[in-house]
Amino acid sequence: MAGTSDIKDLLTRNVRQSGIYIAFVFIVLLFTVLTRGALLSPGNLTNLILQYSYILILAIGMVLIIVAGHIDLSVGSVVAFTGSVAAVVVIQHGLPWWLGILAALGIGILVGLWQGFWVAIVGIPAFIVTLAGMLIFRGMTMQTLGNVSLSPFPEAYQKIAGGFLNGLFGGPGYDVFTLVVAAAVVIVFALQQWRARLAKLRYDQSVEALWIFAVKVAVVAVIVMAFAWQIANARGLPVVLILLAALILIYSFVSQQTVFGRHVYAMGGNLQAARLSGVKTRLVNMMLFVNMGLLSAIAGIVYSARSNSAQPGAGNMFELDAIAAAFIGGAAVSGGVGKVQGAIIGGLIMAVMSNGMQIMGIGQSTQSIVRGVVLILAVAFDVYNKKRAGAEG
Amino acid sequence: MNDSILEMRSITKRFPGVTALQDVSLSVREGEIHGICGENGAGKSTLMKVLSGVEPAGTYDGEIHFRGRPMSFHSISDSEAEGIVIIHQELALVPHLTIAENIFLGNERSRGGVISWGETNAEALRLLRRVGLDENPVTPVGQLGVGKQQLVEIAKALSKNVSLLILDEPTAALNDDDSEHLLGLIRGLRDEQGVTSIIISHKLGEIAEIADTTTVIRDGSTIETIDMHGGAAAGRALIPRIIKGMVGRDMDSMFPERSVEIGEEVLRIEDWHVTHPTQPDRTLVDGVSLTARAGEVVGIAGLMGAGRTELAMSVFGRSYGREISGKVFMHGRPANVRGVADAIGSGIAYVSEDRKRYGLNLIQDVRRNISAAALGKVSRTGWIDGNQEISVAERYRKSLNIKTPTVLSRVGQLSGGNQQKVALSKWLFTEPDVLILDEPTRGVDVGAKYEIYTLINELAEQGKAIVVISSELPEVMGLADRIYTLSAGRITGEVSAADATQEHLMELMTMERE
Question: Which regions span the lipid bilayer (chain A) (predicted)?
Fold first, then answer.
């Protein structure tokens, strides 16, 4: 088993796995051309991150929910509800900004416990529980806000979504700090990949050829540095990007490397077998929904900070964007399959398309149609690939 | 071969990286029952997929002639149009629909798109009589037992004017009575209605009894075609030859020898009661007490519906039934088996009879299935050591001889015998003291069976207590040191293997409740 795997085998396997990445690159290139480069301009890239971060945060939790074989339709309402609670605490009562954040996170956890109770303990399908949650928490948002918008938030709170870490090292027209952070990320990534490769070799597993490995790391490095260069030339490193990166790292790890993550996949793949393997399915379901509530609260905080207000209608249809991101990113409707990275890429595909079409001045109606068609095509591509894979088996 | 109904010539089917069929030929005469034997992965199922059009024409080399004409089937409907109907091992019935609705599913008796229920039900009743099933056509299929469902499948095939009926492991899930009835029916279809049948089976006794001709396939090639005319006795005499063809080696004794000191008592169950999960008036397990000692293989023999699986699953962390009462002792001390995790923690492992539903995550790889029940052993404070996990999987792949491209391959791609080995690996990795094996060789070919028997002996020699639940009496007698018979939820006898005869066991297993 030791040694390098066959190139052809690697390519066919990788095309299947990385189809979504290829599609992402294609869409980025397409809209770069269509917008005459405006898509990748420093200002727009920064804007893109700020504008879609909350969808990506929701997508992280959603993909886990979907892998376990559930769905969550309530996240849009929960985003609004947690944001409104933060607004009441900070704006109406004039309490410190961090108390508002704690209150929102607490509410998110309570919401998760409530929905988890019905799904995990009572055994009602998540579709129904969260459909009810969508109505309940939207109503609670309106009551909390007394049906009016609350604004503005103090500056410290706004910084969560609109803040930048820059100027720490100065720089001639661009932010050196951003570049240093990006370079550190690249180095850590390369070292981690190298260590994983050595570990694999030590355990007699096949690894890709050295030159493929080198090309892979180099491509990632170039993309990260180019991206960093662009945002360094705008306003520097957004706080939200750091938050998002941390969440992606943590949840990729939790889903792939922990017992909890494994149990989620096992339940989605074969619930009965998971139960008979000693998986505490109630506990896992409960934790999944509490986690979704928590992430919804984080998204709620980011969204309210960015819009600098809490509105009764906030977060409308966010659940659908998050669900679409997970499915475009390769999650299976039947559960058991899907990755955090995939959902992030899926969310970015939606983000780049929306943003690109906005730059081009395409109307909302057309945008909606295009996004719908892309969702269908993405899943169709996945289904087609799986059929091919099945035929090989 | 002028009287042949089906000629498959030089069929070669390649999947990327593996040749599933290499120059296979199959010739089936009109009006015969043709047995196909072969190990799992030998290519039987692929051959039938080629025949029925699941693998469409053009994806394989070779020719198919049916009734003397060359055929190129592109889908199941193509082959069904010619009267070739395949009944799969996993029944394809919709449980909530009635018998009649299932029989005519996809082939509805209708006028202008509106179903004519009178014709549907009357026709269904006629078909049910032909297969000897005394049921009302409007009964939902889910209410029937597996044996009767199998008959509904055959009625469905008959509704399509079948001339060649292919049955894949038709009796795998049936008890002896139902199997007998089914084989009689197939014989009747041959004698009275001229239906030709192909039967794929691992039960060689059954093949010996019923087949007129048997084709043996090994490693994707035809080994030989044996004429089995001359009655069941002559057929049985040919079994060693079939086995030899299937595995390519002589098998002197089906069951490996075991020499082991039987030690202390490991498992004791006292006065165990289980009630049906939804029907509170049905007692499924009624006051069962039993013991198993270290190094001992204990057999539980019972017919379908005797409560064997219900007993095992309820002991294994109350996974089945309600109002469960009774006591479980491990090593003489009361054991906590309130949940599956507790049962595993107490040293009990249960390998399900239905590995696809209860045993394995088919869309996941071999590695993650093997570690699934003992993730704690490849992780520290909740973090999984992925490399250690792979070496564990590699260890079991080697020691149990699991035939898989790599341990990262999906379990759903493996053959039945290898899937079973993965399921066994998963439970061995929990390092249990008691291993409950529910039909451990169901749907497993002769070669893999022998390997599993050898493994059971090795485990007993390591001092584990093994409980084997099986509906195949020779298997129970060949493996066990001591046999409990179970009938209608009660233990009706306890016999040492040395004293057991099939007749005596069957008598105990069919003992009615006073």
Answer: 20-39, 45-66, 73-91, 97-114, 121-140, 173-191, 211-231, 237-254, 283-305, 317-337, 368-384
